[in-house]
Write a structure and sequence with these properties.
Layout lengths: L2 H29 L5 H28 L4 H26 L5 H27 L3
Helix pairs in contact: 1-2, 1-4, 2-3, 2-4, 3-4
């Protein structure tokens, strides 16, 4: 596959992730309560950092080692899930236990929206490889 096309897809994915994050964060900021602001910021930063890195690592794997893409997608799922558990665990240890359910629900919203986007986008792009 051409590296230019793959790089274009990685850039497009990065922009799409940023737009989705801005929309989610802005929506929660406008419509959510004060208790949702910190979980929203943590969720936005987690998904933005993780998925932008994921998109560029995908570009490297797809352009240099295309036969490793199935293993890459499996590894991405495992790392994403374990990272989310670590963040929720840290918030449990550090934060107020009465707000943990709110944190988990808001964080879960970010997690699921980006999980669905990731699955649909890379299923579509990988079918063209």
């Amino acid at each position: 596959m051409e590296k230019d096309w793959l790089k274009k897809q990685a850039k497009y994915y990065t922009v799409m992730v940023a737009v989705i994050e801005v929309l989610l964060f802005g929506g929660i900021r406008l419509l959510g309560t004060e208790a949702m602001q910190t979980p929203s910021l943590v969720g936005a930063l987690f998904t933005l950092i993780f998925y932008v890195a994921d998109g560029w690592i995908w570009y490297w794997v797809a352009s240099n080692h295309q036969d490793y893409l199935p293993s890459f997608f499996t590894g991405t799922s495992v790392v994403r899930f374990l990272s989310a558990l670590v963040i929720i665990g840290c918030c449990y240890l550090v934060g107020d236990h009465s707000r943990l359910m709110t944190f988990m629900l808001v964080f879960f919203l970010y997690y699921m929206v980006m999980l669905i986007h990731h699955g649909i986008y890379f299923m579509r792009v990988s079918n063209r490889l």
